[in-house]
Amino acid sequence: MHRNVVVAGLGLPALLLCGVAPAQTTITIKATANQHPISPLIYGAAFPSAFQVGDLNLPISRYGGNEASSYNWELDCQAKGNDWYYESWASDNNSYPGGSVDNFVANLKAGGAQPLLTVPMLTWLGKVGSNRSTLWSYSIAKYGAQTGNDPWNGDAGNGISSATGQPITSNDPNDANTPNSVATQQAWLNHLIGKWGNAASGGIKYYVMDNEPSIWYSTHQDVHPVGESYDEIYSDYVNYAGALRAADPNAFICGPEEWGWDGYFYSGRDMQYGSAHGWSNLPDRAAHGNVPHIPWLLEQLRKYQASTGTQLLNALTVHYYPQSGEDSNDDSAGTQAVRNRSTRSLWDPSYTDVSWIDSIVELIPRLQSWVSTYYPGLQTGITE
């Protein structure tokens, strides 16, 4: 038997097969109801090629990730951290300050896109040796046998002692890094504004304040072996974002760029402590009124604006990764099912995430609720 379904207002009949008597069902689509604008900035990307910028008509692109935390604009190099044996590499053999980021910006602007640049707040930045040679933090000759090493550089270890199975924390950060400072970043911001213009003149508008600070103790163990605390991230944020605001009063500042679920609620200090001692006692959070990590930071930055008149945050931005292997090569029916429903963690208040999170994430409403409660007026975003 056949059933005709008429979609009201569109005049599009559909032919459906079923085992019941013919009947007509009318579906009314109210195309003008519950409308709201979609920001074009949600269609951005990270590190696209010049071709991709034009081909995809990208409006914005982020220069970020772990190595952006350690980008040394003066030497145009960065430390890879835990991503690659704690080595510091020159950026594409550029020989002038800020060269690789300037090239990144140039490619975006040529395609009509806006850059979203990371301002490093990490305590140390990468450095290079003579003739821009690679340096590394965990020399096996210097710090002893380790559980892994760079297959193309036998002396560059992974920072895990073979003798103890624990991270090596007695290393000298100066081996492959150099100290960061507000003055260093202020000089870079002045360079960027001098070359590209400020936000008000059509230059660089969007910035993010570093990258996933709550896991610096892991991603950048060689220079930040102790997890960042509530007070540390607030102090760093005020100092570095303050320098950015002073350099460009109209810059659009995003943060804190936390990595995921635990980072939303706990500082790096508590994540590190909880992993070693159990999660029933988290001293850093307890010392701050038991307020979750991001809400506490939002509240402090709101108070800062109220007392100084200076706004250091325009958008609450975080990172989000599904935690059940959705990005794996597994294409089984079970993984496909999980992959298809995983996006419900972004919006659905009735969906319990099936990963180790085992909780209702509803990330977008959650971020909006935190803003409404702790710092009204901010925008929200997911940048990775």
Short description:
With 384 residues, this protein is an alpha/beta fold.
Structural summary, described in words:
This protein has 13 helices and 17 strands. It has 384 residues and is an alpha/beta fold. The strands form five sheets. A seven-stranded parallel β-sheet has the order 4-5-8-14-15-16-17. Strand 1 and strand 2 form a beta hairpin.
Let me know the largest β-sheet: 7 strands, parallel
Percentage beta strand: 15-25%
Helical run tally: 13
Mean pLDDT: 92
Unreliably modeled segments: 1-18
CATH class of the largest domain: Alpha Beta
Q: Residue share in helices?
A: 25-40%
CATH topology of the largest domain: TIM Barrel
Number of domains: 2
Could you give me the name of the CATH homologous superfamily of the largest domain? Answer: Glycosidases
User: How large, in whole angstroms, is the Cα Rg?
Assistant: 24 Å
Structural class: alpha/beta
Order of helices and strands: EEEEHEEEHEEEHEEEHEHHEHHHHEHHHE
Strand order of the largest sheet: 4-5-8-14-15-16-17
What is the CATH architecture term of the largest domain?
Alpha-Beta Barrel
The multimeric state of the shown protein is single chain
- Principal-axis shape: globular
Distance between the termini: 50 Å
